[in-house]
Amino acid sequence: MIRKSDLRGFKLPGWLEALKATLFADDTTVYLGEGDKFEVLQRILDTWCSAAKAKFNLSKTEIIPIGTPAFRKELADTYKSSGRWEDYPPDVHVASDGEAVRILGAFFGNGIGECDVWSPRLAKLEDTLKRWKLGRTTLEGKPHVAQMLVGGMTQFLTDVQRMPDRIRLRLNGILRKYIWDDKHNTPVGMAHLALPFDQGGFKILDLEARNEAITVMWLRSFLSFGPNRP
């Protein structure tokens, strides 16, 4: 209904159709172009909800302004002071410049830094590993913990957001401290621990190799010219 509506959406270079909405499960992102009215979108949502017996939670609505810095600041400041902007729903969250909004596990916004996006994930990972240290995991078991936590908690965000080198180095430091129980002078380097068992290593997660593999898979998908090409 949204895609067939009179909403203008975003005109993208090389696309025949305007970008109006992306949907996944119960998450909906709508793109309103200059001149689009929220009341038009609201009528569409009301019609859909009436037919589907569902309800959109407007209190969870988040708005990312797009346009000149002056326009973005005016919109965010007006919402913050009055709770309203034209025909948009009142008292919803409007992201200011430098504030990231999470959409399906990725982070979007104006003027946000990649390292800022990763900071909450690093803090959560460090806290989780501190609790695992209390379990006295053996050296043989720590590679499995590293793969499960460091690998599992960073793989999706790396896939959708990429991992800056500064974050990779920070994660390697966190991983090294966990493997060697916070010792400053470690007996074996991380590069050697990442080797296979038959080469004297422990197959510790190699973040650089993992990140390169994710990039290769991205390239593979974009070089596919079938109907599923991104």
Keywords:
mainly alpha; two-stranded antiparallel sheet; two-stranded parallel ribbon; 8% strand; elongated; 230 residues; 2 domains
Task: Characterise this structure.
The chain is mainly alpha-helical and 230 residues long. It folds into 2 domains: 2-108, no CATH class; 116-223, no CATH class. 45% of the residues lie in helices and 8% in strands. Strand 1 (21-24) and strand 2 form a beta hairpin. It starts with 20 loop residues before the first strand and ends in an 8-residue tail after the last helix. The model has no long low-confidence stretch (mean pLDDT 86). This is Reverse transcriptase domain-containing protein. It comes from Trametes coccinea (strain BRFM310) (Pycnoporus coccineus).
